[in-house]
């Protein structure tokens, strides 16, 4: 299953393609931020297959992460971690 997972931006790098590091409840991944140009460090974005596709507030991100955390292995599976 492919889900959009919310995470907090911890670093932004502007170059040919706007990239950043996003923290998903302790799991960090490199993410393309080109589709969320106003998102900055500390903001939450929904990430699908390595691309931030929308910006969300902290409360919405927390609700989604809580649901995913209730499903054993869901978050790790979506982020490519061993369950």
Multimerization state: single chain
Distance between the termini: 15 Å
Tally of distinct domains:
1
Morphology: globular
Helix proportion: 10-25%
Share of β-strand residues: 35-45%
Radius of gyration, Cα only, in angstroms?
Answer: 12 Å
Average residue pLDDT: 88
Number of helices: 2
Structural class: alpha+beta
Please give the CATH architecture. Answer: Roll
Number of strands: 5
CATH topology grouping: SH3 type barrels
How many strands, which pairing sense, and closed or not: the largest β-sheet?
Answer: 5 strands, antiparallel
Output the CATH class name.
Mainly Beta
- Weakly predicted, low-confidence segments: none
* N-to-C series of helices and strands: EEEEEHH
Order of strands, widest sheet = 3-2-1-4-5
Family: Belongs to the HupF/HypC family.
Protein name: Hydrogenase expression/formation protein HypC
GO biological process, one term: protein maturation
GO molecular function: carbon dioxide binding; iron ion binding
């Amino acid at each position: 299953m492919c889900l959009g997972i919310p995470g907090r931006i911890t670093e932004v790098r502007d170059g040919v393609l706007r990239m950043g590091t996003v923290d998903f409840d302790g799991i960090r991944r490199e993410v393309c931020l080109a589709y969320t140009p106003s998102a900055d460090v500390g903001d939450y974005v929904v990430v699908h297959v390595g691309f931030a596709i929308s910006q969300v507030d902290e409360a919405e991100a927390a609700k989604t992460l809580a649901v995913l955390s209730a499903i054993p292995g869901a978050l790790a599976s979506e982020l490519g971690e061993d369950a």
